[in-house]
């Protein structure tokens, strides 16, 4: 296993230097600023430029995650025009393959991630985010984040329709991914609550549902799970995490990891530092190793410690290259070295 610098929104010299100073050799980018995709898809030219930029910095691109919202919202919502968006998504997959990027992460959240408090207090006064279903009636505290839709749903979307929309998506794009050798990776629904948030049902909310998603993909090797440990921990703590590892890990259906944790499970939880949440990071890494996982992991949603500007909403390099992120990455590197499973 290896730690990659991940969830990078704005890539520049500062971020590249941060990665190298932490001893990392690769990056994973999240709807990055260097891929505007103004024509409805990520073009070969802009992907080539991104790849060449990272190559010059001596950093391999492990994968990309989340195309711009404007490229995908009709697919998620099952709206007229989704076929055109799917054609563009196919172009993105082909172009990613052409520049040698092996993985594309996606989510299927028409109303995106929800939090009810962006300024909660964690250990020692660190800034963390939290969610309480009772407070969700007041709306999403992530409103204004660049991947949170500004347009409300015109009508509710129930679970059956969401499952159908996801199947429609897979049927359109998986054959292309299989043809060109790109792997698609699904992020679980965060928070994993049964209650619709913003009018859309959430379907990837249990370990069983994640296996069902794999079944929808025909257990294709071109599909995998973006195993967000924090989201799965929200489902049911370490028991839920273990259930996903045991169900998907032995067959190689775990693509990569978002490594974070929370205290508490739905309907209420709070993000926290690694090592003080619902699961033991050491036990989880040992279990992943035991089922043969040898991919990459990234830190995710780190607390903002003293001197750090923010947690989520500030995506600038200044906020990204934080003390909280350095702590999380060093923590993970230490465990991998102690377990002798780092590569």
Automatic annotation (TrEMBL):
Record pathway? Carbohydrate metabolism; pentose and glucuronate interconversion
Entries under InterPro entries matching the protein: Man_deHydtase, Xyl_isomerase-like_sf
Q: Which Pfam families match?
A: UxuA (PF03786)
Which terms under GO biological process does the entry name? Answer: D-glucuronate catabolic process
Looking at the record's lineage, which domain of life comes first?
Bacteria
Keywords in alphabetical order, please: Iron, Lyase, Manganese
Q: Which reaction does it catalyse?
A: D-mannonate = 2-dehydro-3-deoxy-D-gluconate + H2O
Requisite cofactors? Fe(2+); Mn(2+)
Which GO molecular function entries does the Swiss-Prot or TrEMBL record give? ferrous iron binding; manganese ion binding; mannonate dehydratase activity
The catalytic activity of this protein is classed by the Enzyme Commission as 4.2.1.8
The entry's function note states:
Catalyzes the dehydration of D-mannonate.
- Family named by the database record: Belongs to the mannonate dehydratase family.
Could you tell me what this protein is called? mannonate dehydratase
């Amino acid at each position: 296993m290896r730690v990659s610098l991940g969830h990078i929104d704005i890539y520049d010299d500062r971020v590249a230097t941060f990665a190298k100073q932490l001893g990392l050799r690769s990056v994973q980018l999240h709807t990055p600023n260097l891929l505007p995709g103004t024509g409805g898809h990520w073009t070969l030219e802009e992907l080539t430029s991104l790849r060449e930029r990272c190559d010059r910095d001596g950093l391999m691109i492990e994968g990309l995650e989340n195309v711009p919202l404007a490229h995908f919202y009709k697919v998620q919502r099952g709206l007229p025009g989704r076929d055109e968006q799917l054609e563009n998504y196919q172009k993105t997959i082909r172009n990613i393959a052409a520049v040698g990027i092996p993985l594309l992460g996606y989510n299927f959240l028409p109303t995106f991630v929800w939090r009810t408090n962006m300024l909660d207090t964690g250990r020692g006064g660190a800034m963390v985010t939290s969610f309480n279903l009772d407070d969700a009636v007041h709306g999403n505290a992530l409103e204004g984040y660049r991947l949170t839709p500004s347009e409300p749903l015109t009508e509710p979307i129930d679970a059956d329709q969401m499952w159908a929309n996801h199947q429609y998506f897979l049927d359109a794009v998986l054959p292309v991914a299989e043809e060109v050798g790109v792997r698609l990776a699904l992020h679980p629904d965060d928070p994993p609550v049964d209650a619709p948030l913003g009018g859309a049902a959430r379907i990837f909310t249990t370990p069983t549902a994640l296996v069902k998603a794999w079944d929808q993909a025909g257990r294709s090797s071109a599909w995998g799970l973006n195993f967000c440990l924090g989201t799965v921990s929200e489902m049911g703590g370490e028991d839920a995490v273990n259930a996903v590892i045991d169900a998907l890990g032995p067959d190689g259906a775990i693509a990569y990891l978002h490594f974070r944790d929370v205290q508490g499970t739905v309907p209420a939880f709070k993000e926290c530092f690694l090592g003080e949440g619902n699961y033991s990071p050491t036990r989880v890494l040992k279990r992943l190793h035991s089922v043969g996982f040898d991919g990459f992991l990234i830190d995710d949603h780190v607390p903002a410690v003293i001197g750090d500007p923010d947690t989520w909403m500030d995506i600038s390099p200044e906020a990204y290259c934080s003390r909280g992120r350095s702590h999380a990455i060093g923590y993970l590197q230490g465990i991998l070295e102690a377990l002798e499973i780092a590569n």
